[in-house]
Structure formats: structure tokens, C-alpha cells
Write a structure and sequence with these properties.
It is a single chain. The chain contains one helix and 28 strands. With about 325 residues, the chain is mainly beta. The protein has a single domain, classed as YVTN repeat-like/Quinoprotein amine dehydrogenase (Methylamine Dehydrogenase, Chain H, 7 Propeller), CATH 2.130.10. A hairpin with a 4-residue loop joins β26 and β27.
């Protein structure tokens, strides 16, 4: 990495003017967890814990629009056990968790209002829209299960719990592979599960090489799955060929949420323990190479990307999101 790139990254990550985005109500800190990006909305999804808001952030201008109606409380930058911490978009609606109430809510994106709410059987973690089946899947690690909700919008929006899938451990993280009709999730240790969307059952189990599996990402066209390991590692697996290991690379420690830019072939891996972001290049055969690191903030463990060269990193202590521009050329694809 050049000296110019290194200096640029340091300035951006330090949150200089215009490169950190404060979340409304976050002056005491926010217990962030899951971040995401909706290409349909062109917005970064920032569920903001006990502030009671899911914030939609314009990746170019940094403008913030809030959707309210979720549980609000004392909050603070440590932990993420209150309010809304995960969200996804599909079917013209936004779906988000509420850990305080143990509910799943659907927001009409035309009105930005909550129009459907369902009680969960356990404490929620990840929320994901499943387009092929018009369902919402919610991981509930306390139950070792994914709870499945059917979503209907006519005659009125409604979420109905229809099934659960149980796991021996986890489930941690969740990503949907519509191309192959599968979802992928992890145990808390070294296992990745491939789940059949229609059968609602585990179809395959793979060793991912982690000591503590956490984050997940997917290059859907190529069938490459990325795993973030808490101990400071990223791994790539081939979901087409039995979960074969394609590559691995060391990263900063304390990995949780990860994000992938298919356009650049870059994987963004924040390590909350080391307060560093590792940018990883993904090669033609799925091999992984560290391109460089950038400083972030203590416990900055979650990330999203707009896919166009910007990573958005949560800063729990300061209740904001850091905006870090990727200085590296696209990886050979």
C-alpha cells in the first residue's frame, strides 16, 4: 500500500469531517449489530438499537432518514441486547427485529410506517428476506433455530410464523443464495450449514476452518461463500463443490459482521478487538489476499458496503458510522 493510501485511510477512519455519520439519538452510544446495504433503496441499513430507529443512510451524501416505532431505552455503546439490531428489504417492505419486545416488524417503504408485527419464539439475531419463497427468516440462537415467517401484503400486510429449523449449535449469521435455493449459516465454532429453502432442512454441513465462526458473505454467481472468524481470519468456501476450502487469510481479531463487494472482488473484515478493518482481495479461484488495514474504533465489529468502493463501519461508543473509501484496485476476477 502506498504512503498516500495509508494516510488517506487513517484520516477517513479517524472520522474527519464528512467521513463519519452520526446516528440520531446516538450521543450516548449505540449497541449496533447487523448492518446492510439495499441496492433497491440505494441506502445503507443501520438498525440503531435502543434509539428505537432503523436509519437509512445515503452512501454518497451521508443524509440519514429514520424509521421509528421500535423499542427505545437507555441504550449505550456496549452490547446490542435492546431495540432493533437487524433489518432487510424485500417485496416493497423493510423487515426488522426488536430484541426488547422479541418481535419482527414489517415496514411499508411507501409510507415508512410499521404495518405488520409478529411475536417471535426466541430472541432475534439476523433478519433476512427470502425472495424465492416470499418469507422472512429470523435466526434465534437461544433456541438454536431459524424461525420462518410467511409474508403476505393482501388484503393487509401480515407476518405468520409457519416453521422452524433447528441446529445443533448456532445459528450464527445468515445469507440467502436464491440461485441455488439455499441459505447458509454457521455454528459458533467451525461448521457451516447449507439449508434448502423449500425443504426447510439442512442439506449439507461443512467444516469452515474457524475456531469461532461469525460473519458471512456470498459471491452468488460464482458460488463462493466467505466466513469471518472471531480469532482473526477470513475463509472462502466453494458451495458448488461440497464446501471445499478455496482460501484463507489472517485479519484483525474480534471479527463479527463482514461485507463483500462483488464489483471489486473485495471482502471487508472489521476486527472489533484490534479496532482495524482488513480489506481482502478475492482472486480468480477464490484465493484470499490481504490488501491492507485501516484503523477504525474500539468494538467496531460490523460493516456494510455499497459495492462501489465505500465501507461503512459501526462505531458503537460514539453512536455513528465511519465511512471508509476503498483505495485498492479491483481484484483479478
Amino acid at each position: 500500500m502506498s504512503v498516500v493510501a495509508a494516510v488517506t485511510l487513517c484520516l477517513l477512519a479517524a472520522g474527519n469531517e464528512g467521513d463519519s455519520i452520526a446516528m440520531p439519538g446516538g450521543d450516548r452510544g449505540i449497541g449496533f449489530d447487523d448492518l446492510g446495504y439495499s441496492s433497491k433503496l440505494g441506502k445503507v441499513l443501520v438498525p440503531s438499537g435502543a434509539t428505537g430507529r432503523v436509519n437509512l443512510v445515503d452512501p454518497k451524501t451521508g443524509a440519514v432518514e429514520s424509521i421509528s416505532g421500535f423499542s427505545a431505552g437507555a441504550g449505550g455503546g456496549q452490547g446490542h441486547g435492546e431495540g432493533t439490531t437487524s433489518a432487510d428489504v424485500g417485496g416493497g417492505f423493510l423487515f426488522a427485529s426488536d430484541r426488547t419486545r422479541k418481535t419482527l416488524s414489517g415496514v411499508d417503504l411507501a409510507t415508512r410506517k410499521i404495518v405488520a408485527t409478529a411475536q417471535l419464539q426466541g430472541g432475534p439475531d439476523y433478519v433476512r428476506w427470502v425472495g424465492p419463497t416470499s418469507e422472512v427468516w429470523v435466526t434465534e440462537p437461544g433456541r438454536k433455530a431459524i424461525e420462518i415467517f410467511r409474508f403476505t401484503s393482501n388484503p393487509a400486510p401480515a407476518l405468520t410464523s409457519v416453521a422452524s429449523i433447528t441446529f445443533p449449535d448456532g445459528p450464527e449469521s445468515l445469507v440467502i443464495d436464491a440461485t441455488r435455493g439455499r441459505a447458509y449459516t454457521h455454528s459458533w465454532k467451525d461448521t457451516t450449514f447449507a439449508v434448502d429453502l423449500k425443504a426447510r432442512a439442512v442439506a449439507a454441513t461443512w467444516n469452515n476452518g474457524c475456531q469461532g465462526a461469525r460473519g458471512i458473505g456470498l459471491d452468488e454467481p460464482r458460488g463462493w461463500l466467505f466466513v469471518g472468524c472471531d480469532e482473526g481470519q477470513a475463509v472462502s468456501l466453494d458451495v458448488v463443490h461440497g464446501g471445499a476450502k478455496l482460501g484463507a487469510v489472517k485479519t484483525a481479531k474480534g471479527v463479527d459482521i463482514i461485507a463483500y463487494s462483488a464489483a471489486l472482488g473485495h471482502l471487508y473484515v472489521p476486527g472489533g478487538d484490534d479496532a482495524q478493518l482488513t480489506t481482502v482481495g478475492v482472486g480468480k479461484a477464490g484465493a484470499l489476499t490481504s490488501l491492507g488495514t485501516a484503523p477504525t474504533a474500539p468494538d467496531a465489529h460490523c460493516v456494510a458496503t455499497d459495492g462501489a468502493g465505500t465501507a461503512f463501519i459501526c462505531d458503537p461508543q460514539h453512536g455513528r458510522v465511519l465511512r471508509i473509501r476503498d483505495p485498492y484496485p479491483a481484484s483479478a476476477r
